[in-house]
User: Fold this.
Amino acid sequence: MISRKDFVFTIGYDGGTAVVDGSLKRRYGSLSTGELAEQGLYKQALCSAVFEDREEAVSRVLELYNARAEHRLAHVEELKRMFGVFEVPQGITRILVVG
Assistant:
């Protein structure tokens, strides 16, 4: 299974390999879901909330996003669709850290 930090900073997948942004992971890996969103790292905050499987955390990310965004989103599903984050992928057997 992929770790929270690796999932939060994944930039793509190649089969069973998750490609992780090592630079962002080192810089922001210790931040909570809310702290990531407050830093403007909304995709990473969403990944963190999805990993935690907490709908209230996902809703909070949407709220923080809408507070700063020019175009507000009405639903959590719109946020998930925009960032392409819906669930923690299964079958990840390798982590490739770049940067």
About this structure: The longest strand covers residues 10-14. Residues 62 and 76 are 6 Å apart (CA to CA). Strands lie at 10-14, 17-21, 94-98. The helical segments are 4-8, 22-28, 33-38, 42-52, 55-68, 76-83.
